[in-house]
Design brief:
Length: 360
């Protein structure tokens, strides 16, 4: 039977609301005219980077470069590649030679190899405008529009070139579309993360609220009896001894000691609709527990009308609380000196003392 009830409760539990998924941002239409398939990567000789070229090496490199330029003029790109490679091996530390060979590789439709040469040229000379120019062109042939725009803009900044500027204008429309798309995706990602974080906080707050309401509900249904034997010092069935918690405490089953006679019983307390409504408030029970653990903590709630109203109500029922809200502490020795006082103190209240500070 009990298992069936638990199963019913599980089935009745509403599902957690899901955060609606945002609409997918469409990728922009890109004009890929002129884009080619990358070639199979084949590493070309880069020369010995630790080599210190001699005068003969520099002279040989210059001679090979001349032959390469002549081959280019004749449209013999393979021969030009061979001569530039020989020049690089003779003088591997020349950024210009690597950039020149990259330009030949572009004519041979080998952008991957051209990028490798441009990377080398830029590593040798970070201000190599030719390195950025030909790498930008290689990225354009591969359809890497944003990278192409960045490289070509850098080349024009370092050393303006008409060809580089024309190539830059060619890639900018596609690059701008992709950059806008990337920014929109990033904004959406940030918004989703923020919404998820807010939802986690909301669910945690909701769970805490429901737990407090459930606890207050069980407490009210149990009438403060055996279901909550450890909720407060001494439980409710035996009252709160003045030495172990609240001065005078809440009344036990047989009444409240120290209030001038038998106080209100538990039935009287829990038959009061205002008290029961207060106990169901998730803000009230933690406050009462806090006050029970240390009577001086009552000062924390001096400006809370809910707590003040409940304490006044409990005092009127003979359930003494510390005299912080205009009432006398139940069970206090002596009485109030005010003969017009209508409280349970009987007109014998001792002089008031300032509350002890909360040192917690």
């Amino acid at each position: 039977m009990g298992g069936d009830k638990k199963e019913e409760k599980r089935e009745e539990k509403p599902a957690e609301p899901e955060i609606p998924k945002p609409a997918e941002i469409p990728f922009p239409e890109i004009d890929n005219k002129g884009v080619i398939e990358p070639e199979e990567a084949v590493a070309l000789p880069m020369g010995d980077s630790n080599k210190a070229p001699s005068d003969e090496d520099v002279e040989k490199a210059s001679e090979e470069r001349g032959k390469a330029q002549e081959a280019l003029g004749n449209g013999d790109f393979d021969a030009a590649l061979t001569h530039f490679t020989a020049a690089i091996e003779a003088n591997p530390g020349s950024a210009m030679l690597h950039a020149k060979r990259a330009s030949v590789l572009l004519k041979l439709k080998r952008p991957i190899a051209a990028i490798a040469d441009c990377d080398k040229a830029i590593s040798i000379n970070p201000d190599s405008a030719q390195g950025y120019k030909f790498r930008g062109r290689a990225n354009r042939l591969l359809g890497k529009w944003v990278e192409a725009k960045t490289d070509l803009a850098t080349a024009c900044k370092l050393d303006y070139d008409d060809d580089a500027n024309e190539w830059l204008k060619e890639v900018e429309p596609n690059a701008h579309k992709i950059q806008e798309y990337n920014r929109a995706v990033e904004r959406q990602k940030t918004e989703i993360e923020l919404a998820e974080r807010r939802e986690r906080v909301r669910r945690a707050q909701e769970a805490n609220r429901k737990a407090a309401e459930e606890e207050a509900k069980h407490f009210a249904e149990a009438g403060g009896q055996d279901e909550f034997p450890g909720a407060f010092p001494g439980g409710f069935t035996g009252g709160f001894p003045g030495a172990g918690g609240m001065p005078g405490g809440f009344p036990g089953a047989g009444g409240m000691p120290g209030a001038g006679g038998p106080g209100a019983g538990m039935e009287d307390l829990f038959s009061d609709p205002d008290i029961m409504a207060a106990f169901k408030d998730p803000e009230v029970m933690p406050a009462l527990m806090d006050i029970m653990s240390n009577p001086a903590n009552i000062m924390k709630y001096a400006n809370n009308p809910k707590i003040a109203s409940l304490i006044t109500k409990l005092q009127s029922k003979g359930a003494g609380m510390p005299g912080m809200f205009g009432g006398a502490p139940a069970g206090a020795a002596g009485g109030c000196q005010d003969e017009h006082c209508g409280g349970p103190c009987g007109g014998q209240q001792p002089p008031r003392r300032a509350p002890e500070p909360d040192l917690d």
